[in-house]
Design a protein that fits this description.
The complex is a heterodimer of chains A (113) and B (111). Chain A is mostly beta strands and 113 residues long. Chain A has no helices and 11 strands. Chain B is built from no helices and 9 strands. Classes of the chains: A mainly beta (113), B mainly beta (111). At the A-B interface, β4, β5, β9 and β10 of A face β3 and β4 of B.
């Protein structure tokens, strides 16, 4: 099946700094990618839809200025958590669809201290 | 997309079949039933999907009732590595559509 890769797998940053997470589709082109957030013992919550060459579409309640999404190519979307705070600590997961399936990255564990 | 209801948790003995139910009584005619699973601290993994006919692949079988209001995912011979949270999702099969996850079923396979 298709492969989606995220980087980094985990990151620890200081409060107030920004963190960038990359999501790559390795063997297919994805005009649309999706970003999810998952808190401990909870389900995945869709944050935004990343569209290649245009602005991302954010779910209700997600701050677009805090979670910056860039989808500059057909194989790469990035999520930047700006001015991160401890409450932003979470598991961030991206996905891309291909042939009616969604393929997910391995996730990025963000810890803000 | 239609809402789904799944039991919060289930146990299954190793080597036995695991049957995971899902209710989707408001499913529309063009919505597919998808199953994904998530092993702890990993991204979700695709298992199987179907529209109205039963489906089988190397991982599992999907049984959809004739009225399509419910379905069952069957893992024929559960192993310890099948311990995970299983998500049943209904959505239109379109590569541009996002997936909305419910609470899922936490399956524990017991030795």
């Amino acid at each position: 099946g298709a492969v989606v890769s995220q980087h980094p797998s985990w990151v620890i940053c200081k409060s107030g700094t920004s963190v960038k997470i990359e999501c790559r589709s390795l063997d297919f082109q994805a005009t649309t990618m999706f970003w999810y957030r998952q808190f401990p013992k909870q389900s995945l919550m869709l944050m935004a839809t990343s569209n290649e060459g245009s602005k991302a579409t954010y779910e209700q309640g997600v701050e677009k200025d805090k979670f910056l999404i860039n989808h500059a190519s057909l194989t790469l979307s990035t999520l930047t958590v700006t001015s991160a705070h401890p409450e932003d600590s979470s598991f961030y997961i991206c996905s891309a669809s291909w042939d009616a399936e969604a393929f997910f990255g391995q996730g990025t564990r963000l810890t803000v201290v | 997309d239609a809402k789904t209801t799944q039991p919060t948790s289930m146990d299954c003995a190793e080597g036995r079949a695991a049957n995971l139910p899902c209710n989707h009584s408001t499913i529309s005619g063009n919505e597919y039933v998808y199953w994904y699973r998530q092993i702890h601290s990993q991204g979700p993994q695709y298992i199987i999907h179907g529209l109205k006919n039963n489906e089988t692949n190397e991982m599992a079988s999907l049984i959809i009732t004739e009225d399509r209001k419910s379905s069952t995912l069957i893992l024929p011979h559960a192993t310890l590595r099948d311990t995970a949270v299983y998500y049943c999702i209904v959505r239109v099969s379109n590569t541009g559509n996002q997936f909305y996850f419910g609470t899922g079923t936490s399956l524990t396979v017991i030795p």
